[in-house]
């Protein structure tokens, strides 16, 4: 054998030679070394280095080589497929898709899940046309890339793939047989190499060198040196090279044949043959010694490798660890573990090794390796929870319960995983392992850990689906043994639906030892009745013996029952009962408030379609409620009104409004309008009185002039100015100048401006007023004066923004329209030279426009050329070209084209001419232009003209352009026809749209989906038949079963559903999304986890917890590893908290933390508030301690817990403790004086006057004794907010310092202005604090309130008040007021600021920050 090997030589061109590693002395690793991500042992011979690195290096070391090999493996002998081009294209697309999926999995984890592999396999089978590449991809994935699957199962899977794809027509070549051999070696499958060769021969496939190498490895794996020698002799006769892989296989073969000495001598034989041993070779020898348990020889081999400069990586040592574990040499594993250097990529490699060890029954070795994970050694993590994968796989592989319990205890004691028992239980529940789950729960009880009813839900899911009473009973027995009583959700969702009746359920539960006398069973009974029989529900609820039961526990069932029922009378009786009977309201709310919220929830739970469909029923319901004296609060009415507004149901709003408390309704309908109709006369009388009394007139004079300005009474305004000239303020002059400009009185405007400058030369007007004045002067031939104004603007550094530039453009256009071209040129020169604005085509266009309007295209051309020369701008060149074409002036037209060609290029010139000819109807000439040889499509220019045609409704010109460009090089024909269809949609011309569709077919245009949808919309809106299947981006049309098998990929179908679900969720149509999920489930299609999570989040956002849990169960039935996302868990906490189910919310918070997820601010806030409402001080403290463990991840205010703890004390009747707690916070030396407004508000809302008195006394004591004014300020603002104005006034009288709390008062005003109906609160504040320092800001917020309330009358009054007080409104104020005027169909007395609200808000923000 040695002689035979010594005569062998390497072939230069070999796979190893193709993978040269820079800087090394040897060829690169075999493909197996680069492909595999999981260790399967050194005994596989040619599969030498199995464990590939992942993380950052995985893309370099593991998968890309594989991808390349997968693509190229079958090139040598692949036969031509006789299928058509379409089939081959489809194969290529599917292969890329499958490769991407597997590539992503390997890049992230270094392994593939069986679920993913089977999905791809089934999808390829359904497509019906598997290619050779598909077969290679699937076969190679059946080996060590599946560490979580036992080897026997991997082999079965490989055979299944092989046979199935062969049935479907896949053509196998030598690469496929080699791939199967590789899988056999990785999975240690026992097979006959001779039979394998015979099968290849029968299939007329010739083995190659790789085949022989792997057959040698197969012989050596079994210690059959004789068989390996036979293959070696054959290889020599064929002059095939003997590579390093063969030598490595022989080391394994000699070792397993019992000749370890010969195995060691292979290294010297290699060197003699000219092959230098590589790390692969040393690892193979280490494995050989490891199987014998020869630790000393292993150490010597390691030293030899180091001395030969063959440094072994962690993944090499991991191969040895796996070999030791499989050989039963557990005692040597710690020695190898100590040699691990924790290189980059260690964690994923080690995870895959752990999974392989567990799969092969070596859990202890895996556990020892788990404890070496570097990140576990960090002492900075307060609550590490690592090892999830280990515990999950132990459960999935059925590891003995005693071992699992031992691992959990050690992980917990070592602080490696602080919730190991709970997590392991969740894994057992996911696996539906009843026995293990119950035993683990028993262990949890022994460890003093809680066992909750919802832990049993996964165990109940399957019996519930199968309607298996015995299965449910078995689980309930387990609950009884563990002392866990079924809660409401468990009972109503999982237990009751299985039994034929409630009585049968109660009897069975009694027999099992479950107490059925609790509130839970009463609530379950009422829930069932509410959804099916409202009359019986009322009978039961109205019984005096019926126990107290909070409405929130059965509200959703009651609403659901009403929506399905036509029994309005019973629902009215139930609602009346809820309104009057305190048994159905929580302790902190009265029955009428609970009923109000119930009505709001009823409307909120209905979609727009449901409201319209049941409008008569709802109207009857509301009218009967009104007759019975049921009333709701104004705030709830506003909420219902907003919902009905969005549903377009104005008639129902009137019926709901009748339910509002009569006192509130009367006050709301009272007129707010006050004042004198002849305000100007009153102001003038006031002026006379002030003049007689020799008092200042400035403010009233300005107000009077403004009032006259509103009435456009220039004459009287000038008379007043003349009469009170000495008292004229800057604001009054500005108003008067604007009024003169509007009346085109340039002389008076100029005189007023000069007078103002004489009075105060530093005064600067608003830019718009300057521009308006320039316009007026220019239009009245006072050009020099206008230029002087522009110069003044430059001297006074008047800054112009885009809005002002637009004003300048319109000003120049107005001057040009009057024929003042020299004036426009003079103004332009001045503006550009002074730098007030930069030259643009827009600002240069007025002169050109003027020439074009006077039908002088030659003058327009000369002007345009001059502007180009001066400012490098070419305004309105298209319009000039069109005018010249219309006029037929070929000389000037040639001049234009020559100029454009020189400046912008010949192609741009041709497009200009093309568009001009189309615009003028000269289609023949246009066609000649577009057919110019070498002309290419310019999408930007084509789109520009198409948009121009659409905007001006020019169908003929657009149609001609589309037709003429049919042969234009690189022209997107679908895009062109889509322009026509857009215009058809604008004009609602379905006949033209249909004709366009016919032309597209004639031209053989392949339309995009958006084009088809656009055409379908046009036809459907005109009740025409759509002559094609309408594609939906968010929905895949349901196909027949036959079509599904033949032509539709379930994964693509699932993608269609997923897109639809995402759209529905974004639109807030959670119930519709739920219906789609149920439909998908019935069809047997599995969605992605993200789709399920989106639906759950949408349902939870609307408070539908039960429906969300249904979706969760469906998801878990399809995706065993499904978990709620962090957002969904947070929403669930919020929903539970809103319902008052604080126990469930707290448990969900804890489970969220166990999953290493971070609770949101809102989730914690809602939970703490709910606990405060219920008086649960201890649980608030528990939540606070949990939040503290999160560090900076959740940066919550300490006052959240302080305020709600105080409220909890108050809820329990312990006001003293609340006062003591809050007082301690404010008297602390390092106190930041936080807000306690929340406490005051809650106490006031609850009507707890005793608590309010004690808290008020505390606030006053802190103010008087400690000069701490924050609590008393909070009290003052809350009194205002609750409309207790007299109390607030009394408090302010005792503490004048409250009027000086500027920041707090402004903050309150800002907050109040966020919602409609708050204007009165701001007015109350102003009445109490008339000398407020920041009145301008308060007025701005007050205007915002009027805008939200659509109250133009109050807005006008406010504007007049500001004018009278001399307060200059900002642009945002004016914008809001102008919009109000416009919406009411009136004209604003000032030009509307042209920019958006956001623009002006940002402007004010910047100004405020600049002042700071």
TrEMBL record:
Keywords: Coiled coil, Repeat. The lineage of its organism: Eukaryota, Metazoa, Chordata, Craniata, Vertebrata. Residues 235-343 form the PROP1-like PPR domain. One of its GO terms (biological process) is regulation of mitochondrial translation. GO terms for molecular function: mRNA 3'-UTR binding. Transmembrane segments: none annotated. GO terms for cellular component: mitochondrion; nucleus. It comes from the Eukaryota. It holds the Pfam family PPR_long. PPR repeats lie at residues 208-242, 243-277, 766-800, 1335-1369. Residues 673-727 form a coiled coil. This is PROP1-like PPR domain-containing protein. InterPro entries: LRP130 (IPR033490), PPR_rpt (IPR002885), PROP1-like_PPR_dom (IPR033443), TPR-like_helical_dom_sf (IPR011990).
